[in-house]
Fold this protein.
Amino acid sequence: MVHHLVLFKLRPEVDEKTVESMMRDTRIYLLRIPEVLAVRCGKRINPKNQWSFFVGIDVDSMEKLEIYSKNANHVKYVEEIIKPHVVDHLSLDYESDPAKDIRYS
């Protein structure tokens, strides 16, 4: 299984209400994508943390992650929910099944 994690720096003007809406919209948009097995998202607890928002999804393989990234719901989510509120991001992918060779996923 592949865990895709994206950390975001939000624009200074993004308020708590907007972050709550982003969390709700993350689930609405991304859970519609058949390749997505699970969605997690959240907001920072420590104000010193530069990454104020995160999204994590689980998919079966790198191939499924590629399909996910091109899915119309994902593209719309990025354009309508993420881009208007974000100044920077960091994207990370992890294999979450021990002893599995991701090259063969």
Summary: Strands lie at 2-10, 38-43, 53-59, 86-95. The mean pLDDT is 94. Residues 1-43+63-88 form one domain. Helices lie at 16-30, 62-70, 72-82.
